[in-house]
Automatic annotation (TrEMBL):
Catalyzed chemical reaction(s): 8-oxo-dGTP + H2O = 8-oxo-dGMP + diphosphate + H(+); 8-oxo-GTP + H2O = 8-oxo-GMP + diphosphate + H(+)
Biological-process GO terms, alphabetical: DNA repair; DNA replication
Amino acids binding Mg(2+): 40, 60
PROSITE patterns named among the record's database cross-references: NUDIX, NUDIX_BOX
Domain Nudix hydrolase: 5-133
Gene giving rise to this polypeptide: mutT
Binding site for 8-oxo-dGTP: 26, 37-40
EC numbers: 3.6.1.55
InterPro entries: Mutator_MutT (IPR003561), MutT-like (IPR047127), MutY_C (IPR029119), Nudix_hydrolase (IPR020476), NUDIX_hydrolase-like_dom_sf (IPR015797), NUDIX_hydrolase_CS (IPR020084), NUDIX_hydrolase_dom (IPR000086)
Protein name: 8-oxo-dGTP diphosphatase
CDD domains: NUDIX_MutT_NudA_like
Length: 137
């Protein structure tokens, strides 16, 4: 068996004042294209996960998030074919600026109980009940 490549990705459920969660659609041409995911990305060398998230949210969505506004909720651990994904999921209800699709990605605000209607990467499916518990149906 080849050694496992562990990949650390950090993601966030942004929650608006109606308790809806932001999903972003993975662009064509990327792995898992077309699936709906939580904003975030790979932790780069030398970064703390919270710094990664703040950077990704600025680059992808044009919003400014302060570190104390990121609350850990749960995590995903999933064996993709070429790497093992470890993905902490934070929750964030406060940010500055307006969410914009700066990378051309489709965005949707959805209720927790609607998450199952959006095809998500297999790693994300076990995260849904935590959001339903947190936010109610
Ligand atoms: N951001 C995010 N990534 C997720 C989720 N679920 C899930 O399996 N992933 C996977 C998809 C990718 O393999 C990886 C995130 O990497 P990424 O978005 O930063 O990078 P990428 O695939 O675009 O690749 P790259 O071009 O940056 O190398 O984590 C999720 O909910 N949010």
């Amino acid at each position: 068996m080849p050694p496992i490549k562990l990949t650390l990705v950090v993601a966030v459920a942004l929650i608006d004042t109606d308790n809806r969660i932001l999903l972003a659609q993975r662009p064509e041409g990327k792995q898992l294209a077309g699936l709906w995911e939580f904003p975030g990305g790979k932790v780069e060398p030398g970064e703390r996960p919270e710094e990664t998230l703040i950077r990704e949210l600025r680059e992808e969505l044009g919003i400014a998030v302060k570190e104390p506004c990121l609350a850990p909720l749960t995590f995903a651990s999933y064996p993709y074919e070429t790497f093992h994904l470890l993905m902490p999921l934070y929750v964030c209800r406060r940010w500055d600026g307006f969410v914009q699709p700066l990378e051309g990605q489709a965005l949707k605000w959805v209720k927790a109980q609607e998450l199952r209607s959006y095809p998500m990467p297999p790693a994300d499916e076990p995260l849904i009940p935590f959001l339903v518990d947190l936010l109610g149906p």
